[in-house]
């Protein structure tokens, strides 16, 4: 891992993408407030995974109460393998993409995370509904190993199940996610949360089923 004081994020100006480094892996990350860019990301995802059941890491970061009494979701993070989308919902330049609505309701995709149903509830404020394709990976881990994961969170699950060391800085957790230009610390935090969720979900719902 990189020095804890410095976020491991690289920006590629030629592609307008960020690359978040995590234990030797580069996570290609698209950050946008534009509906058209989100549509293109989803189009590429469908092109690659069409017709295949696919796990998707899902997370949201919320607005501070001073900006939103209900603490609306400021951003939505989606991750599959080493590709991540950070959609700035609070700054969308157009209506919520219809393709995003279809994607979240598509039974071919299973959306995973820790306490992920809290995130999907937040998405309803933007007219986004997930179907019955949402799985809390902490619930699965507790079911399979009740003593091992009874008091766990995402960080512990990531380390124990997929060997991923996560940095969870409380200042970043409680930072202003409503800002237009996210800091590198915020980008790393948001990306890794969804990335970890994906790999935990993949292990529990795909890999373990194949070997059972």
Automatic annotation (TrEMBL):
Keyword rRNA-binding tagged: no
InterPro entries listed in its UniProt record: 3'-5'_exonuclease_dom (IPR002562), 3-5_Exonuclease_domain (IPR051132), RNaseH-like_sf (IPR012337), RNaseH_sf (IPR036397)
GO terms for MF: 3'-5' exonuclease activity; nucleic acid binding
Classification via CDD domains: WRN_exo (cd06141)
Superkingdom of this protein's organism: Eukaryota
An example Gene Ontology biological process: nucleobase-containing compound metabolic process
Pfam families assigned to the protein according to its UniProt record, in alphabetical order: DNA_pol_A_exo1 (PF01612)
Chain ranges of the 3'-5' exonuclease domain: 29-209
Keywords: Hydrolase, Nuclease
UniProt key word ATP-binding: no
Name of this chain's protein: 3'-5' exonuclease domain-containing protein
Species of provenance: Acacia crassicarpa (northern wattle)
Source taxonomy: Eukaryota, Viridiplantae, Streptophyta, Embryophyta, Tracheophyta
